[in-house]
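User: What would this chain look like folded?
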Amino acid sequence: MISSYLPGRTLLHRIGAGWKLLGLLLVSMLLLPVEQPLVLAAVLACALGLLASLGSGMGTVLRSLKPVAFVVLFILALHGLFGTFQAGVIVALRLASLLLLATLITLTTRLDDMLDTLTPVLRPVALVGLSERRLALAIALAIRFTPMLIDVTRQLNEAYRARSGRNGHVKLVAPLCLHALNAADHVAEALAARGGADGCPPEGADRGKDKA
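Assistant: Here's the prediction, encoded as structure tokens.
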């Protein structure tokens, strides 16, 4: 799941987050034993069709998936060099289909809906003293932060290449960390304004108000 929410009123937007996650789980289980490239290509075509149904944002989404495409091509090349090309095609088609379907879920699911779906699933962690709400929030934020950091990395690299003519590589780590920390500060402020990660005022907040 590597993309941000895309507002809309399509059928995928109206389906509940739980049903979409359950559907992705079932499709993943069904695709794992499939070894026919034509079947996997048909699933990928269906995923692209669903992406096209979202409207004009398809081009932007596909461009944002460029780093993932490189990973898929790298896996295909490895299979071609050290295994069989057909096996590489099967793995690449299966991986691309599942990644695209997962992306469709994050494109059509609000963060709040994802959080409400994950929280009851993670309820057993309360038995060991962990907060399922906070764990669900951490997972949801990781899903949302990943595409943002990929986009920031791309922008930093483009800026560095415009100045030096070369890719930034390791030199981008420090500015990328600063961007990530700045974003984390903004998220923390937003959470604090909404009563904390559990939706309740943090301990001591009321006392601070009383003193004020």
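The two ends are 44 Å apart (CA to CA). If you want, I can go into more detail on any region.
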